Amino acid sequence: xxxxxxxxxxxxxxxxxxAVHALDGVNLVVENGEFVSIVGTSGSxxxxxxxxxxxxxxxxxxxxxxxxxxxxxxxxxxxxxFRRRKIGFVFQSYNLVxxxxxxxxxxxxxxxxxxxxxxxxxxxxxxxxxxxxxxQNLPNQLSGxxxxxxxxxxxxxxxxxxxxxxxxxxxxxxKTSQDVLSxxxxxxxxxxxxxxxxxHNEEIAQLADRIIRIEDGLIVGGENND
Length: 226
Known about the structure:
The chain is an alpha/beta fold. Helices cover 33% and strands 29% of the residues.
């Protein structure tokens, strides 16, 4: 069953001869439970695509359908609520709140939504990601790899339909990158999460079920990893 789809997705910056076609008609389908890597060089359109998939930026043309919802038909406030409930984000820079503890960072999206915290589920996520002994620590007391694990826990805490990861290992060394990505893959399988990750790192991309390549705002290839 497809969880995510784009139809003729376009994003144009500027007008006339100086117009930049960041996305030039992207058609993409991601199945429920899939782990997909989107690979491209700098300027290929991969970050723009991820922002569109997450509803962080509106397209010039085309549709993004998440869990059966055409997200850009939603008004801004409704889109914000939908994004908070259905989409988890993992960023390269972690984006943790420095004055909140690890536990407070993890449950923040649930509290912002006014929802009840599923303690059993959260504890299982924390244990799976090896964070049980760090719950009272502040982000600046953690290593980069630990901070990224907190970011992953926060992303899946609200049980979203899809997780979008933007260069999630960009600030980590190669061994930590492998460890974090392996945990991301384990958690996605354990908690039935769909993941779309953008990266320029071919070695990291190979951990996904499928690699999609983007060049000049267009999908140029998709292949399954066995």
